[in-house]
Design a protein that fits this description.
- It is a single chain.
- The relative contact order is 0.20.
- The chain has two domains: about 1-40; about 40-155, Mu homology domain, subdomain B (Immunoglobulin-like), CATH 2.60.40.1170.
- By secondary structure, the chain is α+β, with helices and mostly antiparallel strands.
- A hairpin with a 6-residue loop joins strand 6 and strand 7.
- Strands 1, 2, 3, 5, 8 and 10 form a six-stranded antiparallel β-sheet that branches.
- It has three helices and ten strands.
Length: about 170
C-alpha cells in the first residue's frame, strides 16, 4: 500500500511542477508578446508628390504613428533641397511640434516632435519657388527614440533585434 501512496504523491508533485512551469512560461511569453509585438513602435511617413501651381510648387510629408505605443523624440530633417522654402506649415497639429532649424526662407527645415500618440499623424507642407523632390537617401531623415533613423518610407523596429542585440543587421 505504501508503494501506491508514494506513486500518487510523486505524480501530484509532477502535476504541480508542470502547472507552475506552464504558468511561468505563459507570463514570460505573454509579457514578451505584449511588449515586443503588441506595443511595437511603427513610425511611418509618406512623401507627397510635388504639385505644380504655376510659379510655385507644393509638396510635403505626412508622419504617422501606426503602432500601439507612444513614440518620443521624433526628429524630421529635410535638407539639401534645390529651392528656398517660401512657406512652411503644420496645419492642425494636435501633437506638440516645433521647428528647431531652418524653415521659411531657408533650403532646409528640422522639426522636433516630443511625442506622437498612437494613431496620430502630423502633416508638414512646403511651398517653394521651384519643384523639389524629397528623396529619402538624399534630403530626408526621420527618426524617433524608439525607431532608428530611416531612409525609407516605413520605419519599423525589429522586436527580435531589440531582444537579441547580437543579431547581425
Amino acid at each position: 500500500m505504501s508503494g501506491q501512496s508514494s506513486n500518487s504523491t510523486k505524480s501530484s508533485w509532477t502535476d504541480v511542477a508542470s502547472l507552475v512551469i506552464t504558468l511561468i512560461l505563459l507570463v514570460v511569453g505573454g509579457g514578451f508578446f505584449y511588449n515586443a509585438i503588441w506595443l511595437r513602435p511603427d513610425l511611418t511617413y509618406n512623401v507627397l508628390p510635388t504639385y505644380d501651381l504655376g510659379s510655385r510648387a507644393f509638396s510635403g510629408l505626412v508622419i504617422e504613428n501606426r503602432g500601439r505605443s507612444t513614440l518620443t523624440d521624433i526628429d524630421v530633417s529635410i535638407s539639401g533641397i534645390e529651392a528656398t522654402i517660401e512657406e512652411f506649415n503644420m496645419p492642425g497639429a494636435h501633437e506638440p511640434a516645433e521647428i528647431v532649424a531652418g524653415g521659411k526662407g531657408q533650403r532646409e527645415v528640422r522639426v522636433r516632435i516630443p511625442r506622437l500618440s498612437p494613431g496620430a499623424s502630423i502633416s508638414l507642407y512646403m511651398l517653394t519657388s521651384r519643384p523639389i523632390s524629397l528623396e529619402e537617401k538624399k534630403s530626408l531623415y526621420v527618426s524617433s527614440k524608439e525607431t532608428p533613423g530611416v531612409d525609407s518610407k516605413v520605419a519599423e523596429a525589429d522586436p527580435w533585434r531589440s531582444l537579441f542585440k547580437w543579431l547581425p543587421k
